[in-house]
From TrEMBL:
It comes from the Eukaryota. Residues 4-64 form the DNA-directed DNA polymerase family B multifunctional domain. Pfam families: DNA_pol_B. This is DNA-directed DNA polymerase. Keywords: DNA-directed DNA polymerase, Nucleotidyltransferase, Transferase. It is an enzyme of class 2 (transferase). The keyword Cell wall biogenesis/degradation does not apply.
Length: 111
């Protein structure tokens, strides 16, 4: 976004994947993390769960568990993704949401 701070050849460029319309190209989905935070752009939670978290966990647990996918990703409690609204909080704390949970089983109310 700022030509003076453009990356050079071989530089690592930080990015996050944001939510966008179906069928958007990968280069349209990747944005600078600082820009995303400053402009309250929601990240694509499903992308990170499906591509960044589930595949490495399956590689680790498939030799150990009989049906690793079923054991690790059975959403018994329900899958709930919260999109937070902009607030006065800064940095990563603007994505924190306070929720009540059962002290013994950690279940969230309503599930």
């Amino acid at each position: 976004r700022d030509p003076a701070s453009a990356p050079n050849i071989g530089d690592r460029v930080p990015y996050v994947i944001i939510q966008a319309a179906e069928g958007a190209k990968a280069y349209e989905l990747s944005k600078d993390p600082r820009y995303v935070l400053e402009h309250n752009i929601p990240i694509d939670v499903d992308y990170y769960l499906d591509h960044q978290i589930s595949k490495p966990l399956l590689r680790i647990f498939e030799p150990i568990l009989q049906d690793a996918r079923k054991e690790l990703f059975r959403w018994d409690m329900g899958r709930s993704i919260s999109i937070c609204s902009p607030s006065n909080k800064s940095g990563i704390m603007k994505f924190v949401k306070k929720q009540l949970a059962c002290l013994s089983c950690k279940a969230l109310p309503g599930y």
